């Protein structure tokens, strides 16, 4: 099982467990300054 880390959504302030590899990939890509949970991400995309 992959190691996980708890991250806080920058929009709704909920806490989520993510695999460390996924967090590293997000940071490496430099696309975001803060984590956005899947629910908030979908809501943002729907409003664009």
UniProtKB/TrEMBL annotation:
InterPro entries to which the protein is assigned, alphabetical: Znf_FYVE_PHD, Znf_RING/FYVE/PHD
Gene3D superfamilies: Zinc/RING finger domain, C3HC4 (zinc finger)
Name listed for the protein in its UniProt record: Uncharacterized protein
């Amino acid at each position: 099982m992959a190691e996980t880390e708890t991250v806080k959504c920058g929009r709704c302030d909920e806490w989520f467990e993510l695999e460390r590899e996924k967090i590293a990939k997000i940071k490496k890509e430099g696309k975001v300054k803060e984590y956005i949970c899947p629910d908030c991400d979908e809501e943002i995309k729907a409003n664009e």
